[in-house]
């Protein structure tokens, strides 16, 4: 284990000391100008400090031309310090070495984390709500904007804007706010309005805080009531993404700068890059750190890069990172072949069948218009004359969107197991089949000269297997700090019906317009949890972001698994959110800003830079430097172990705060399925006599034998008979 930490430390130091190493490979041309973010930590306290003139003077020292002002793209100056500027490689390197600069990194393009009901979660309509308090909660949504006229954002019955609100309505164009959408800002000058042209931001906003709207459906499918997690909360919109789903990193940081200063209560970000960036090279982690200082918890989608291990893109311990699970409502579609055989597949097909069977165009009827060969597995290159009036039989191995254009009637698509979960929406009858069923269609088409088939309108099916983790939801272990469990939590993210922008097409292929649509991905799961955070906060105004996160994690419900069962907690985190239980966790694992700072020290950050990030005289405690990253008071424990064939011994320190009954005694219950690993907890009983009292304990984990699997999962439950405070203990055997 020691070796492992050294290795992490080493990689870290390289990144910190010489940021140029990160991108050298890509940048041979020294004169290439690029947009960089220069992060400078907290704003100094001095009243006379002027961020913009400081930023200009730093630039002056590295740029020798006169148009410095044009190189400074924007200054961050409301909630933290830094700026975005156009620099070449040499200037970037010089800046990175200057006093006051913490990191300089390219402004990457973030992407929306969507792939293509609350009753299920235990937050029914009749639930107890802190109405008055709840309606003073503001959910900050950093996304593609919002469609303000959507019925989901009507403000009927909502009181005036909360007094604490310091934000503005600068939606641009004809955008107007109301008592539901109380703040709006846009950042990308290519679309001069906070109005949503992509649809994604409208969808995520309505999942978190949409009003109750009856009789909503998707072209007659999935009819019901649309309702966000906290229908009486307020929404503040920060539009950073434009049509096409591109969201520039420097704009995301600008949105955090404003949202924190505006006074939101929770921030939700369903965006990501396809890798886990180093904390202070990541606009979301930087923004969330400063949000945390102000008592604001930030939610981020875990990413849709699963099922590969370590594909989680949201890794900082102060972020709440959300995986996506299925819900019990599933769409199924029937394929009826000419020989009467019926196969069940997936799609969201809104077109009713009238019983007519259409001819099937088989693979060998497909050829590229330019004479080349169509790739055997893919739905491409259709010869119009051969597919007109027919159902096309083809494959979509990577889930490429396929347009049954050129006069086709529809499509029967062979998809890989990993993308079968995703319901593809199409404006022509279409069905996705798994390989076994697809082969049956092929053997039928081989057996007859004129194969025909009919695709039915999709139906809703109650899925008893839910919730399971979506195949594409990003997996842990945490690629940056193994000791921090990621993702943290899971929530419904598949086939979610919510509000949409009526000017956005359903997707690249289906150009229909709709006010409500079905989307999937960790993008959808993230605002669900943001809503639950707001819900918990409405009852517990004084809880820190870490306390709220702990309450939600330790009360989570089990997830039935995932397609790759071995991933376990690394797929679903602590489990599926359980909003009502999260109000009464009994005990919480709290984490202060000083704790995060100490963790960064232990992780290897330069002490001077840490001081600057925290903006306080918080120094690294040399004395407790032995206290390793694993000792941060996280509500889950992950112990990385070297794969040597010898014993290991780990001690983990934790402290819980009583938020249950003043007088209570909690007993440690260990749920350990692994006889090869011995876990003990000291003390076994924790007695409290008042609220907010803290008690510490030590978990000792000993393994004495050769271990032949990679992950050992156990859990510790503190129980007082009423509350069961559950934390996973995961021993992760490192691979060489
Ligand atoms: C930046 O500082 C590092 C070490 O602190 C040094 O190796 C490097 O040469 C410096 N780069 C520039 C451009 O000054
Ligand atoms: C506002 O402008 C958008 C786009 O320009 C348009 O689609 C919409 O109908 C307008 N809304 C109102 C309420 O005028
Ligand atoms: C069913 O629909 C097809 C195409 O839309 C049409 O050609 C056919 O006549 C219809 N059949 C019946 C029985 O209505
Ligand atoms: C449709 O036909 C046109 C012209 O033949 C061709 O260029 C195009 O690639 C075809 N589209 C598909 C999806 O095959
Ligand atoms: C169906 O798709 C899978 C996954 O892409 C592929 O491995 C398989 O060969 C395909 N089967 C047929 C019959 O095309
Ligand atoms: C159908 O026929 C094609 C072409 O002859 C052949 O490659 C394929 O294996 C056959 N599939 C089945 C399921 O019979
Ligand atoms: C910061 O803390 C150090 C030791 O912890 C102390 O020596 C120093 O005076 C403090 N500085 C300020 C500005 O408070
Ligand atoms: C807790 O227990 C102590 C001693 O057993 C008792 O004096 C006190 O009144 C109790 N407090 C509450 C809130 O029940
Ligand atoms: C590990 O070894 C035990 C016996 O010592 C065996 O029962 C178990 O199946 C093995 N697990 C794996 C993953 O090989």
TrEMBL record:
Transmembrane segments: none annotated. Residues 36-113 form the Inhibitor I9 domain. GO terms for biological process: proteolysis. Pfam families: fn3_6, Inhibitor_I9, Peptidase_S8. The keyword Iron-sulfur does not apply. SUPFAM superfamilies: Subtilisin-like (SSF52743). Residues 631-731 form the Subtilisin-like protease fibronectin type-III domain. It is found in: Secreted. The active site is at residues 143, 200, 523. Its EC number is 3.4.21.25. Its main location: secreted. Residues 1-19 form the signal peptide. It is an enzyme of class 3 (hydrolase). One of its GO terms (molecular function) is serine-type endopeptidase activity. Residues 136-573 form the Peptidase S8/S53 domain. Keywords: Glycoprotein, Hydrolase, Protease, Secreted, Serine protease, Signal. GO terms for cellular component: extracellular region. Belongs to the peptidase S8 family. This is Putative cucumisin. It comes from Medicago truncatula. The lineage of its organism: Eukaryota, Viridiplantae, Streptophyta, Embryophyta, Tracheophyta.
């Amino acid at each position: 284990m020691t070796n492992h930490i050294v290795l992490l430390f080493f990689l870290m130091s390289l990144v910190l000391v010489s940021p140029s190493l990160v991108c050298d490979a890509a940048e041979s041309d020294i004169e290439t100008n690029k947009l960089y973010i220069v992060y400078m930590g907290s704003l100094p306290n001095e009243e006379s400090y002027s961020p913009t003139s400081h930023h200009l003077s730093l630039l002056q020292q590295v740029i020798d031309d006169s148009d410095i002002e044009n190189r400074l793209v924007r200054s961050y100056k409301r909630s933290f310090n830094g700026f975005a500027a156009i620099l070449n490689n040499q200037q970037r390197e010089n800046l990175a070495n200057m006093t006051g600069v913490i990191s300089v990194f390219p402004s990457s393009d973030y992407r929306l984390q969507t792939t293509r009901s609350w009753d299920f979660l235990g937050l029914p309509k009749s639930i107890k709500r802190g109405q008055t308090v709840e309606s003073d909660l503001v959910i900050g949504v950093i996304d593609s904007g919002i469609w303000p006229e959507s019925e989901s954002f009507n403000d009927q019955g909502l009181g005036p804007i909360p007094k604490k609100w310091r934000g503005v309505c600068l939606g641009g164009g004809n955008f107007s706010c109301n008592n539901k959408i109380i703040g709006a800002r846009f950042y990308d000058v290519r679309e001069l309005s906070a109005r949503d042209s992509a649809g994604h931001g409208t969808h995520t906003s309505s999942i978190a805080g949409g009003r109750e709207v009856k009789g909503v459906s998707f072209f007659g499918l999935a009819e019901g009531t649309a309702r966000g997690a906290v229908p009486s909360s307020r929404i503040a919109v920060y539009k950073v993404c434009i049509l096409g789903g591109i969201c520039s990193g420097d704009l995301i940081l600008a949105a955090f700068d404003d949202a924190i200063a505006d006074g939101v209560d929770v921030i939700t970000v369903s965006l990501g890059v396809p890798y886990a960036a180093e904390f202070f090279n990541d606009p979301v982690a930087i923004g969330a750190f400063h949000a945390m200082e102000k008592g604001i918890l930030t939610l981020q989608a875990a990413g849709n890069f699963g099922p590969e291990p370590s594909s989680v893109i949201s890794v900082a311990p102060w972020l709440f990172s959300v995986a996506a699970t299925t819900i019990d409502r599933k769409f199924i579609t029937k394929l009826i072949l000419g020989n009467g055989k019926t196969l069940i597949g997936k799609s969201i097909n809104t077109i009713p069948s009238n019983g007519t069977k259409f001819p099937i165009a088989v693979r060998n009827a497909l050829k590229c218009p330019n004479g080349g060969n169509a790739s055997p597995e893919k739905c491409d290159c259709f010869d119009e004359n051969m597919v007109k009036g027919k159902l096309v039989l083809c494959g979509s191995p990577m889930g490429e969107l396929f347009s049954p254009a050129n006069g086709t009637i529809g499509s029967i698509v062979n998809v890989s197991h990993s993308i079968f979960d995703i319901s593809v929406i199409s404006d022509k009858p279409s069905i996705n089949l798994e390989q076994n069923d697809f082969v049956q269609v092929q053997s039928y088409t081989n057996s007859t000269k004129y194969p025909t088939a009919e695709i039915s309108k999709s139906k809703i099916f109650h899925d008893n297997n839910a919730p399971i983790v979506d195949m594409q939801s990003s997996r842990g272990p945490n690629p940056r700090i193994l000791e921090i469990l990621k993702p943290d939590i899971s929530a419904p993210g598949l086939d979610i019906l919510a509000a949409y922008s009526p000017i956005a097409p359903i997707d690249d292929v289906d150009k229909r317009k709709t006010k409500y649509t079905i989307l999937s991905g960790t993008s959808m799961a993230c605002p669900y949890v943001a809503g639950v955070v707001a819900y918990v906060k409405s009852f517990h105004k004084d809880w820190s972001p870490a306390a709220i996160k702990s309450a939600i994690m330790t009360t989570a419900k089990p997830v039935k698994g995932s397609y790759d069962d071995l991933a376990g907690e690394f797929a679903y985190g602590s489990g599926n959110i359980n909003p009502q239980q999260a109000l009464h966790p009994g005990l919480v694992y709290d984490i202060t800003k000083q704790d995060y700072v100490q963790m960064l020290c232990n992780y290897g950050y330069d002490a001077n830079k840490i001081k600057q990030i925290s903006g306080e005289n918080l120094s690294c405690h040399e004395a407790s430097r032995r206290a390793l990253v694993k000792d941060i008071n996280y509500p889950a424990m992950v112990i990385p172990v070297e794969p040597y064939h010898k014993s290991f011994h780990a001690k983990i320190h934790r402290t819980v705060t009583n938020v249950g009954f003043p007088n209570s005694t909690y007993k440690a219950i260990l749920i350990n399925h692994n006889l090869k690993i011995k876990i003990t907890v000291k003390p076994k009983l924790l007695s409290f006599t008042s609220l907010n009292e803290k008690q510490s304990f030590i978990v000792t984990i000993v393994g004495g034998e050769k271990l032949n699997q990679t992950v050992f999962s156990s859990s510790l439950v503190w129980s007082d008979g009423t509350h069961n405070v559950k934390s996973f203990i995961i021993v992760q055997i490192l691979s060489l």
